[in-house]
Amino acid sequence: MKNSMNFCRFGIVIFLIILINSGCSVTHTVNTSSTISLSKVLKKEIPAIKNFKCTFTRPNLTISIEMKDVPSEESLNSILANVKQFSTIENINEIAKSVKWKSEIYDINLIIYSHSEEKPLIKYSASYFRTFDASNTSEENIDGYKTWTKYEEPQT
């Protein structure tokens, strides 16, 4: 009986630890003046955009754009140019404040996918830091979301 009580207590402690840790990564929908403005500009320039959504899951911002059809290269270039222009430290700090995040947003992920496709078509990413060392806040380690990298799934 004593062993089963200890096992039960141990199980409850493990459950609470898991619950607390999973609660730390809540996804927030982001609706700041800058994200609303970006959405309007993109939808005006590219009518093929079906859905635009910005979310924050610490410590990253994700911009998801669902297209009605497979986007043209011109549409992709326009989306990326607008997102780059939007991705200023000031705008990203506004987002951090809106979700009560008291640090830099580490990465911005841009995901563009088609309504008819299950997998993301394209993912771009930019980081605040040049390296993975977020404790290094020297000028040499700050990129400030200027360098964008394109990720593509391998062709099979």
Quick structural summary:
The chain is α+β, with helices and mostly antiparallel strands and 156 residues long. The protein has four helices and six strands; from the N terminus they run αβαββααβββ. The longest helix has 22 residues.
Written overview of the protein:
- A hairpin with a 7-residue loop joins strand 4 and strand 5.
- Helix 2 runs antiparallel to helix 3.
- The protein is globular.
- Helices cover 38% and strands 24% of the residues.
- The termini are far apart.
- The longest helix has 22 residues, at 2-23.
- Strands 1-2-3-4-5-6 form a six-stranded mixed β-sheet, covered by helices on one side.
- The chain is of the alpha+beta class and 156 residues long.
- It is built from four helices and six strands.
- Mean pLDDT is 86; it is low at 15-22.
Terminal Cα separation, in Å?
57 Å
Helix/strand-derived category reads: alpha+beta
Q: Number of helical segments? A: 4
| Low-confidence parts | 15-22
Radius of gyration: 20 Å
Number of strands: 6
The major beta sheet can be summarized as: 6 strands, mixed
Helix content: 25-40%
Give me the side-by-side strand order of the main sheet. 1-2-3-4-5-6
Shape category: globular
| Average pLDDT over all residues | 86
Strand proportion, as a percent range, falls in 15-25%
Q: How do the SSEs run, as a string of H and E?
A: HEHEEHHEEE
